[in-house]
Amino acid sequence: MFTADHKNLRLSFNEFHNVSDKDMPQYGEFCLLELKSGDYTAGSWHPSGNSRGKTGSFIRGTADSIGSEEVERWHSLDRYDITECLETEGINWINLGPEEEGSRNVQFEDFRSFADKKRPKEKQYCLLIMKDGCLAAGRWNKWRHEAGGAFIYAPALASHSSDKVWAWTPLSTDKFFAMELERENEKELEKKLNRNPSADPELFKYGTDIDTYYKLALEKLRVEFYWATLPMMRKKTPVWQIARLRGRYVFGQISRNYYNDSDIVTPWTEGTTADEFIDFLCKYTRDAVKNSNPEERFKLGTDINVYLEKAFENVRKDYRWLDRKMLKKTWQYGIQRVDGDLEFVRRYWNESEYTVFNVESSERFIECVEHDYQSAALQENEAVASYAATFGHISLHGWNLESYVFYKLRSGDYKVIVTAGDRTAGGSREFFITPYCFEAKTYEEFLDRYLEIVPDYSFGLGKKELLPDNDLKEFLGY
Are 203 and 280 in contact (CB under 8 A)? Predict the structure, then answer.
């Protein structure tokens, strides 16, 4: 590694070019920039389309750029490799460009190193000396769940990893860094205010334990729903808590802001007294309690096999190749007590932990199991032939239809997979074409039944497009 001491190092930039002289960098060249405001930043030069390189922007990252009209002078960073200087012991001054009389000269010092356990403040834009001896710049973005971070310097989060940087020093404060400083200051102020919060005596008449308010609401709910319990009430999420906000206690819902690693408290604003909040809790959790009636949910008893057998037989009516061996490596189900209440639970076959399967009735639970069994059956029935429907441009609720493919399965049945997307995202849906569709005597009657499963208004192709397709008609056996 370099023998120069970064703590005593100064970089002197001398060879500046004036933007007013139309002396602009090469396309994509990364430059140190002196702004008309006197601040310093950096960016990659991208001229506008019809300017012949005279006007444009210096790109710093996604949605982060400096227009040429804001820049007074620029100095290349790409054209220097200071490795030889940094390998010279005792050096503390490096000139970048000839030091001529009357030329613009700017010095940067106070370099810091990650080796010294120091790092920039979040969103701070910095001048970098890389471990390969080159110069660069970027906006610091710390990694959320591990040490270190990276300096973003271009769109799509292109960045210099901290382990590639030898030393860094901050450049001028800009609006992005100022916004981050403001957020950090606000977080510190919030912490200070919340050390000794006050409690409105009318709002917190029953104290500052949220369980007290849930229990008082539970007593009221049991007048209508005798089976009500606290766990049933807490199925309605997000649950309400007593939180600290701007130096006072509030009833609130708390969510996590992973961007700046803080909690977001949304306070309750529909009343001003404790009893009003209790009435609100009754309304808020009413449907969750209503839909947790154990007599409705466990109408067939507490033997899970009864429910699974019913689901299996229902699916077998259409998915005739399904057998129980196919279900061993899919979802596994049970009925067990969770926080004192009976619940349907499920886990994937090779996982140990169950999750609660929250449904309001035994019929709904059976329907959900049927869906899982259908997916498992299709996975076990490989395709032996396919036919891709042809179509022009079709827009589906902001997405574009990308593919619409029919498959003949090993069992002789059919399915279709529809794919749609936009420039950044997409998705596919798989549909089994039930035997009922093929009981139709004509292709037109088949389409009427098929389009009840895959309707044209949702998936792009309807009778108008599919009826004239003789190749598809033949593929489906008509």
Answer: no
C-alpha separations of 434 from 315, 374, 442, 449, 478 in Å: 11, 11, 16, 9, 16
CB atoms inside a 10 Å sphere around CB 430:
13
Using DSSP's 3-state secondary structure scheme, residue 44 falls into strand
Name every residue whose Cβ is closer than 8 Å to that of residue 127 and which is 6 or more positions away in sequence. 11, 32, 42, 108, 135, 137, 168, 169, 170, 171
Phi first, then psi: give them for residue 287, nearest 5 degrees.
Answer: -65, -35
Give the ranges where 155-273 is alpha helix by DSSP (H). 175-193, 210-224, 230-233
Rounded to the nearest 10 degrees, what angle do helices 210-224 and 274-290 cross at?
60
The domain spans of the chain are 6-175, 210-292, 296-379, 383-475
Compute the radius of gyration of the chain from its Cα atoms.
33
- Other C-beta atoms closer than 10 Å to the C-beta of 203 total 20
Residues 6+ apart with CB under 8 A from 51: none
pLDDT in tens, the chain (478 residues): 788 899 999 999 998 999 877 788 999 999 999 999 999 999 999 998 765 667 899 999 999 999 999 999 999 999 999 999 998 888 889 998 887 767 788 999 999 999 888 899 999 999 999 999 999 999 999 887 677 899 999 998 899 999 999 999 999 999 999 999 998 898 899 999 999 999 999 999 999 999 999 999 999 999 999 999 999 999 999 999 999 999 999 999 999 877 667 788 999 999 999 999 999 999 999 999 999 999 999 999 999 999 999 999 999 999 999 999 999 888 999 999 998 999 999 998 888 888 988 889 999 999 999 999 999 999 999 999 999 998 888 887 778 899 999 999 999 999 999 998 876 677 899 999 999 999 999 999 999 999 999 998 888 899 999 999 999 999 999 9
